[in-house]
Amino acid sequence: xxxxxxxxxxxxxxxxxxxxxxxxxxxxxxxCGGGPLLKGYLKVRDECVVCGENLSxxxxxxxxxxxxxxxxxxxxxxxxxxxxxxxxxxPLVLVTVFVTATVALSLYLLPRLxxxxxxxxxxxxxxxxxxxxx
Length: 134
Fold this sequence. Notes:
Oligomer: single chain
Shape: elongated
Keywords: Membrane, Transmembrane, Transmembrane helix
Helix content: 40-55%
Protein name: DUF983 domain-containing protein
Transmembrane segments: 65-85, 91-110
Number of helices: 3
InterPro entries: DUF983
Strand content: under 5%
Pfam families: DUF983
Distance between the termini: 27 Å
């Protein structure tokens, strides 16, 4: 078992949000931080291979896609406007650069945001992530 760099639970049993979000962003198990959260590009494992935490309760659905569109859209549109006004590039160059940047940024952010959303759900005990004893 790997050593956990951040505490998983506080003294009162509450799950720490910040460490869980950091682990989720890194696509690691929100509980232990040791096991991989995703089986493929976006498929969440049913349970952690290191600590055995059940991860099948997640309900990320379209949340990561919406957040990705929101973030990428704001970054690309602001940068596109700035580049057009400042440099006045050829339209073909502008389209090529910004389509490539949009796709690359989207592919980078999507699995990380999915991991963060699953970690948020785990930390806040949403859905089936609550205590079974409660």
